[in-house]
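Lab notebook, design round three. We kept the backbone fixed and only want residue identities now. Task for the bench partner: fill in a sequence for the structure below.
Input structure tokens:
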């Protein structure tokens, strides 16, 4: 049996609306009467999720408790401001929900201050940039082409528009962070802030090394910001080292490995930093908070505080290593040579020099395996084509899968690649994917 935290409300098997939890079935029934078009879309999406293998590293399956907390009457209320300091009356219970979410977040990440209002990870980063920097300040970060995030300095993004971005990059040979080179660049560019934490980096981050680099920046040091959106669940459970006490400010999403609702979170150990963050979230960059989402964040943080959640996160990493090893045996190359966390970056070219990430993503989806194309370090192909795939194990681990199942998944993936997307071959793999999903059903 799987632990209650790992699989909170398992269904009896099968797919689609017929195996939804009771509240979801009632919702579909209501919508079938009031808005059958939306009912059909939701039912079809339930079927898609229950019958496909989700290998996108940034996605997960929330518990029924988290999912339904998002759909409550908490959405009916404006609650601009913060607990005890609202701009609207009638916020007694919204204050309680937000206080609960904040206290649980602080306990979960062992820090002193938490802002649970950011609508998403990018919004959390906007507030952090505004709080810690002035427009035109220099920020040192990893570019998106090497595994960074668009909100860390991509030119069309707010970060690349309002701030001067200096890049550090991965070692071209090891495809890992080169802390000596990062230190030299920090000395050269004298950034106001250094960002660590990434969207496609499979190795452990040395936050202590980054803080040392930040402190040595000429002119009084730099702010260290850690964006742990991808590894937040692993950090919360001690499976990955924590950015505390090293980072001045920590941002994250609340979904991905944390397995909460889609949203953002900002953490700090410094009271002055926390005050600046609060002002830049509201009124600096947002208006009314999404209180139905904040209530769901509280539920998710409560789940993550349970011992079973640590077991779940440990299994995520075990599964990632098993999947990585199996893919290598099938002839694929892993960027940096492997993985320490929940994701891996797969170079497809050693398997087939003509194979692209775009083709692989399309072929795999036709077979019921959901992935995303991703550039690899120094990728010769454009970002719309790419030479790689980014794969992750949080969602499959949520279903209860373990190492042996990862080897089966690798085999299914390779059959699709070997067939070069042949429709007949993909249809056969699709049948086997459906059988595997039926062995590990979702709870909603």
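Proposed sequence:
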């Amino acid at each position: 049996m799987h632990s209650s935290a790992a699989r909170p409300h398992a269904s009896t098997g099968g797919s689609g609306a017929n195996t939804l939890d009771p509240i979801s079935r009632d919702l579909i029934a209501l919508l079938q009467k009031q808005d059958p078009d939306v009912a059909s879309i939701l039912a079809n999406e339930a079927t898609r999720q229950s019958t496909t293998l989700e290998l996108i590293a940034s996605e997960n399956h929330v518990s029924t408790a988290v999912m339904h907390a998002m759909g409550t009457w908490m959405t009916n209320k404006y609650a601009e401001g913060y607990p005890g300091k609202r701009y609207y009356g009638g916020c007694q219970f919204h204050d309680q929900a937000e206080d609960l979410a904040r206290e649980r977040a602080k306990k979960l990440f062992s820090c002193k201050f938490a802002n649970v209002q950011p609508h998403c990870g990018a919004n959390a980063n906007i507030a952090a940039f505004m709080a810690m920097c002035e427009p035109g300040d220099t920020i040192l970060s990893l570019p998106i082409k090497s595994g960074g995030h668009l909100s860390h300095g991509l030119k069309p993004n707010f970060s690349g528009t309002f701030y001067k971005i200096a890049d550090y990059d991965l070692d071209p040979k090891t495809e890992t962070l080169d802390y000596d080179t990062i230190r030299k660049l920090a000395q050269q560019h004298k950034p106001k802030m250094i960002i660590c934490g990434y969207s496609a980096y499979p190795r452990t981050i040395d936050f202590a090394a980054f803080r040392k680099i930040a402190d040595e920046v000429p002119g009084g040091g730099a702010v260290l910001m850690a964006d742990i959106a991808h590894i937040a669940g692993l950090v919360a459970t001690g499976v990955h080292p924590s950015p505390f006490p090293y980072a001045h400010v920590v941002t994250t999403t609340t979904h991905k490995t944390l397995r909460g609702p889609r949203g953002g979170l900002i953490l700090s150990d410094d009271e002055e930093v926390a005050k600046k963050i609060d002002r830049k979230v509201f009124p600096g960059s947002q208006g009314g908070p999404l209180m139905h989402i904040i209530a769901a964040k509280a539920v998710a943080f409560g789940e993550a505080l349970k011992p079973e959640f640590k077991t779940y996160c440990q299994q995520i990493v075990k599964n990632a290593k098993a999947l990585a090893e199996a893919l290598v045996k099938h002839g694929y190359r892993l960027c940096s040579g492997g993985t320490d966390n929940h994701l891996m970056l797969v170079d497809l070219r050693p398997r087939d020099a003509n194979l692209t990430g775009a083709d692989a993503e399309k072929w795999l989806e036709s077979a019921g395996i959901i992935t995303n194309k991703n550039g690899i370090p120094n990728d010769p192909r454009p970002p719309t084509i790419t030479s790689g795939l980014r794969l992750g194990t949080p969602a499959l681990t949520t279903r209860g899968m373990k190492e042996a199942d990862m080897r089966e998944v690798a085999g299914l993936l390779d059959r699709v690649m070997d067939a070069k997307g042949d429709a007949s071959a993909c249809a056969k793999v699709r049948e086997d994917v459906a059988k595997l999903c039926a062995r590990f059903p979702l709870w909603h």
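Keep this in mind before ordering anything: The radius of gyration is 22 Å.
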